[in-house]
Amino acid sequence: MVFVKLRDFELRQDNPELSASAVAARATAAFASSRAGQIMVMQPPAIRGLGNTGGFSFYLVDQAGNGIEALQDAADDLEALAGARPEIANVSVSGTEDESALRISIDREKAESFGLTLSEINSMLSVIFSGSEVNDFILGSELRPVIVQADAEHRMQPENIMDWYAKNSDGEMVPFSTFMTTEWEPVAPKLQRYSATQAIEVSGSPSADVSSGVAMDVMQELVDGMDGGYGLAWTGLSYQEQQSGAQAPLLYAISGLVVFLALAALYESWAIPFSVMLSVPVGLFGALLAAYWFGQSNDVYFKVGILTTIGLAARNAILIVEFAEDLRRQGRTIAQAAKEAAQLRLRPILMTALTFILGVVPLATASGAGAASQNAIGTGVIGGMIASTVIGIFLVPGFYVLVMRLVRRVKDGTAAA
């Protein structure tokens, strides 16, 4: 793994081809023909500490217990399937290629007949090849460790193992070759587990102009379509994205409920808040339309803008409904109160809406490092405010008349009964 430091953002922001994603894409294409290995260039994660790279990461889990060889074949097949999908790029499977390893076989019965135990042999091998810190000594003003280890020339080659002797319980020197054999064999470089089940780690990134959520859905689709009962378990930033994405509907529902309860407490009525809440979908429609028009993705920053839009759309409706309710109590009909309230409150609605829209314009037009998150919030809020102001000014009075007439009919029917 190599970390590449780019030039300062101020030197690259005027040229889209020098953005981090563009540089990474060109570098990946340039290294694709390398025969030295599989070389990919990926951006760092959006949140530090959650993984080593951006994009997505997961474990391909062997839920059916097919074995490590079948799991490796399935991971290679998944990599090939993902490479054929345009939504995904840089898919890599960790640790599927077998590597040559020297297997040391110890005949335990023969070793015990020479007065040696397996733990003693293992300890001696550890000291010979990896070393062991046994003590410390003072050298001037520094404390230096005493490390016991075989001399370099006696531990550099595999055949050096057979040159060593072990001292048994009788003090006799027993050569390793009398109870030990070695052979080269292909083995997996590492054995991974996920929840105590054999698994292989897979990582990748979405293609240009494709959100991470779409790429993750494609990978889920590919894994579900594989034979053998394999499963997918997201990790790192991908796991957090899955968790937060599943919580979005709940957050929207809670936000709407909080606004409704606040209005119910304000008007001391359960009916009037409905006319206000009916204006919220108008603001959400404007936010979604603006995001689609300007190519924004439905990420966590846009969700923050959606939550803000819910409150702002309700605020515009409150300015009309509150005044209409006062006029109705003064003796005007429901329709007259709604029409007059919309006319009288038009100016303050436009003033507050324009103030807020102009206030978030810097977010929508921001550039530089971290501008994508600001653009997502600003674009969503501006779209929602424009829709709730331009369209809502006509719909909110109608919602108010509709709800109040329904309430009156229900009351009249109850009184007649």
Describe the protein in words.
By secondary structure, the protein is of the alpha+beta class. The chain folds into 4 domains: 1-39, no CATH class; 42-93 and 205-234, Alpha-Beta Plaits (2-Layer Sandwich), CATH 3.30.70; 99-187, Multidrug efflux transporter AcrB TolC docking domain, DN and DC subdomains, CATH 3.30.2090; 245-416, Multidrug efflux transporter AcrB transmembrane domain (Multidrug efflux transporter AcrB transmembrane fold, Up-down Bundle). The chain is built from 13 helices and 11 strands. The protein has helices spanning 20-31, 68-83, 108-113, 118-129, 212-224, 236-267, 272-277, 280-293, 300-329, 334-344, 346-364, 371-390, 392-416; strands at 56-62, 88-93, 99-106, 132-139, 142-148, 165-167, 173-175, 180-187, 192-194, 197-206, 230-234. Strands 1, 2, 9, 10 and 11 form a 5-stranded antiparallel beta sheet that branches. A two-stranded antiparallel ribbon has the order 3-8. Strands 4-5 form a two-stranded antiparallel ribbon. A hairpin with a 2-residue loop joins β9 (192-194) and β10 (197-206). α6 packs parallel to α9 and α9 (300-329) runs parallel beside α12. It starts with 19 loop residues before the first helix and ends with a helix.
